């Protein structure tokens, strides 16, 4: 099995464990970081935000 095929298989296996059924995209995590760095999150204190497609909920 080539390294590309191995990487694809690993990604498919991980995606199968996530309720959303797919891997997260960098832009999705970046949006959360941008929110937390913005004034919009000024009243957010001590929260855990899981950017994991719901995996933390299972």
TrEMBL record:
Entry-linked Pfam families: adh_short_C2
Gene3D superfamilies in the cross-refs: NAD(P)-binding Rossmann-like Domain
Classification via InterPro entries: NAD(P)-bd_dom_sf, SDR_fam
Name recorded for this polypeptide: SDR family oxidoreductase
């Amino acid at each position: 099995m080539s390294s590309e095929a191995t990487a694809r298989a690993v990604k498919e296996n991980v995606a199968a464990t996530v309720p959303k059924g797919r891997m997260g995209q960098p832009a999705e995590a970046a949006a959360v970081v941008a929110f937390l760095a913005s004034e919009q999150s000024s009243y957010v204190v001590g929260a855990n935000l899981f950017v994991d497609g719901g995996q933390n909920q299972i």
